[in-house]
Amino acid sequence: MRVDFNVPLHIGIDGRATVADDFRIAAALPTLRWLQDRGAEVVACSHLGRPANARDPRWEMDPVRERLQMLCPGIELSDNLRFDPGEKANDPAYVASLVEGFDAYVNEAFGVAHRRHASIVGPPRFLPSAAGLRLAKEVEVLGGILHAPARPFVAVVGGAKVSDKLDVLKALATKVDTLVVGGGMAFTFLAALGQGVGNSLLDVDRIEDCRSLLDSGIEILLPTDTRALEPGSTFGPNSETAGTSGGVKIIERDLPDGWTGLDIGPATAATFAEVVRGAGTVLWNGPLGAFEDRRFAEGTRVVAQAVADCEGFSVVGGGDSASALEEMGLSDKVGFLSTGGGASLSFIESGGDLPALNALRNAPNAPH
Ligand code: AMP
């Protein structure tokens, strides 16, 4: 069973690593137990962290294995897949070594469903294969909101880089009633409208793309005020204690030279929240500001609360949005928390055409 146990680790003062958040392990438990209950001998495999295609003591699976043993005894967990260069390269010899000795393959790793890696696209070419319960649920929910969303359908997209998410914004623009854009990526849109963005994140090469999206006729909500940091100051989780933090001001519309916009302002947050609360379906991905620095977390908090309050169906994808909800104790107030940030965006972008899903659809046992 391919799982996505790429979990955050906590390194103790004794240097020992433990699992800091087991959301992804918990998400795979129903499938693991289902298989065990039916007498299967299950070997799970996952990647963890970013080893450089070689064994790396920092990314051994031991802490994950320990937690898995507690949650679901009797499941074997093999070595970090990315210790072998064959995993990312989708090397046929590595695929052969993965399937050797096994009768069937289950993919329960939605978080990497958009990757054409050996353990994801390889085994279904050789073994009877199935989607795990959680992966199937991800496809059902994300497919459902794309094909028959309760309206109005509102998507809230934040995060740093507009270039990363432009394709998903374009895909969403054909589906949603309102597209709400915040975070660092909003400034390229504001620049496309001719607004001053000071020192904020700006992707000059994407201004034209943003302009055509704005001209496409769909309703796009952008920030009207910004929480900004004065020139020459730094931001980040530790800037205040480091004594380098500067003045923060709420600025309407144009940002003066040198000022950096790091969060949506209170008027924007209130407007965004109202739109979100009134949605029939809401999809949220990406923080609305540089929320790791608590001076710029307010916009993300207000939107997270609105997503939780929304009586429509809410779907949240992405690590940062999920951790913001978690921190606020709101995780159980949303309709569906996706296990895949990048994968859920790729799913939307491609209309469900992900390498992992295509591999399963073409497995020897798949209905044709
Ligand atoms: P992404 O990985 O693209 O979803 O981006 C997440 C990151 O975007 C977080 O680390 C935030 O700190 C960052 N971010 C969000 N808004 C801003 C902003 N206005 N300026 C700089 N960084 C931001």
Question: What descriptive keywords fit this protein?
Answer:
single chain; about 375 residues; alpha/beta; Rossmann fold; 2 domains; six-stranded parallel β-sheet; three-stranded parallel β-sheet; binds adenosine monophosphate
Cα-to-Cα separation, first versus last residue:
23 Å
Uncertain ranges: none
Q: From the alpha carbons, calculate the radius of gyration and give it in angstroms.
A: 22 Å
SS elements, strand count: 16
Q: Per CATH, which architecture of the largest domain?
A: 3-Layer(aba) Sandwich
Q: How is this structure best described in words?
A:
This protein is an alpha/beta fold. The protein has two domains: 2-135 and 354-361, Rossmann fold, CATH 3.40.50.1260; 151-311, Rossmann fold. The chain is built from 14 helices and 16 strands. The strands form five sheets. The chain has a six-stranded parallel β-sheet, with helices on both faces. A three-stranded parallel β-sheet has the order 1-6-7, with helices on both faces. Helix 2 (62-71) links the parallel strand 4 (43-44) and strand 5. Helix 7 (162-173) packs across helix 13, helix 8 (186-192) packs across helix 9 and helix 10 (266-277) packs parallel to helix 11. It is globular and about 65 Å long. The two termini are 23 Å apart. The structure holds adenosine monophosphate.
Secondary structure blueprint with pairings:
Elements: E1 2-3, E2 9-11, E3 17-19, H1 23-37, E4 43-44, H2 62-71, E5 76-77, H3 85-89, H4 92-99, E6 105-108, H5 118-121, E7 129-131, H6 133-147, E8 153-157, H7 162-173, E9 178-181, H8 186-192, H9 207-214, E10 219-221, E11 225-229, E12 248-252, E13 260-264, H10 266-277, E14 281-285, H11 298-309, E15 313-317, H12 319-327, E16 336-337, H13 341-350, H14 355-361
Parallel strand pairs: 1-6, 4-5, 6-7, 8-9, 8-14, 9-10, 14-15, 15-16
Antiparallel strand pairs: 2-3, 11-12, 11-13
Helix pairs in contact: 7-13, 8-9, 10-11
The structure holds adenosine monophosphate.
